[in-house]
């Protein structure tokens, strides 16, 4: 029978383990120190540098950055019509992608969560998430082939006397919708799967039609999950610049302007980069009221 060692005879590791066991707050603090330090130094630090450099200027002759505090970049950003149009277009594309993802995701998630046989539901979720394992560029270039002249879109619409959308703003919205759709389906599927079946049965017993049940019972309970999915679709679409370069034709979004100004005018690129950050922060504050952040 092994005797218990006195406190003085314990190894430093045992004493440290006992201390951490008695003080859970200290244990939690030690666990979170490294990731929080990483977040503060790399992520928040880089955002701070981005915001500070947005107030610098560029020498028009040498193109060198002049570290003098000025608001000229932001003044030019909001007074130049081209910049205003690009900002509004980028926000509009992000909203359009979010709405399309929600419209498509809801019936798909309802089928996978409530209609399909229980044994098939995990496989359907796997099928929905499988495209996320594929390369981003492979998927975008696949859509470029689909939307190109004489591609699959033209072939399918030709019997109807129509042509494919080609490259441009509609192609960008379609491609982004395909890319980020799983991020909307998954939270809605989870919310519908957890929805008690008795609520819909009770609504039907009280004489409510399917449309009224959807508006009064299902939608209010699933809306936070829809908002949670929209956080991903909106933010990812707003900051994207590769898709629009591949299938957007001559369309310009904020990401393209940031990319094109990095070497020519770094402070202006930083000022442009602060716009999606501010828009996403405002969007997150708006989604907070719906309870979406607690669903993430």
Automatic annotation (TrEMBL):
UniProt membrane topology term: Multi-pass membrane protein
Transmembrane regions: 30-56, 86-111, 123-147, 167-186, 217-238, 266-286
The keyword Cell membrane belongs to this UniProt entry's keyword annotation: yes
Localisation per UniProt entry: Cell membrane
Keywords tagged on the record: Cell membrane, Membrane, Transmembrane, Transmembrane helix, Transport
Domain ABC transmembrane type-1 intervals: 87-287
Protein family: Belongs to the binding-protein-dependent transport system permease family. CysTW subfamily.
Protein name (record): ABC transporter permease
């Amino acid at each position: 029978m092994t005797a218990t060692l006195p406190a003085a005879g314990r190894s430093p590791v045992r004493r440290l383990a006992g201390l951490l066991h008695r003080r859970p707050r200290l244990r939690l603090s030690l666990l979170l120190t490294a990731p929080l330090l990483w977040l503060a130094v790399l992520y928040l630090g880089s955002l701070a540098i981005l915001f500070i450099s947005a107030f610098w200027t560029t020498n028009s002759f040498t193109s060198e950055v002049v570290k003098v505090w000025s608001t000229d970049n932001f003044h030019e950003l909001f007074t130049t019509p081209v910049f205003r149009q690009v900002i509004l277009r980028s926000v509009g594309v992000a909203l359009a992608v979010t709405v399309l993802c929600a419209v498509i995701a809801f019936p798909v998630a309802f089928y996978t969560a409530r209609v399909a046989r229980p044994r098939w539901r995990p496989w359907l979720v796997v099928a929905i998430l499988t495209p996320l394992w594929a390369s981003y560029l492979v998927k975008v270039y696949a859509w470029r082939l689909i939307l190109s002249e004489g591609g699959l879109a033209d072939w399918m619409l030709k019997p109807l006397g129509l042509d494919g959308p080609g490259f441009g703003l509609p192609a960008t919205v379609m491609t982004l919708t395909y890319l980020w759709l799983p991020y909307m389906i998954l939270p809605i599927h989870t919310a519908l799967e957890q929805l008690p079946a008795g609520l819909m049965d009770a609504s039907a017993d009280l004489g409510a039609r399917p449309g009224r049940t959807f508006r009064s019972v299902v939608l209010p309970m699933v809306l936070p999950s829809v908002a949670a999915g929209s956080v991903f679709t909106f933010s990812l679409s707003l900051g994207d610049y590769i898709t629009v370069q591949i299938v957007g034709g001559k369309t310009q979004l904020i990401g393209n302007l940031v990319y094109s100004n990095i070497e020519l005018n770094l402070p202006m690129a930083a000022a442009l980069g602060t716009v999606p950050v501010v828009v996403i922060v405002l969007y997150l504050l708006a989604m907070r009221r719906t309870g979406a952040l607690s669903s993430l």
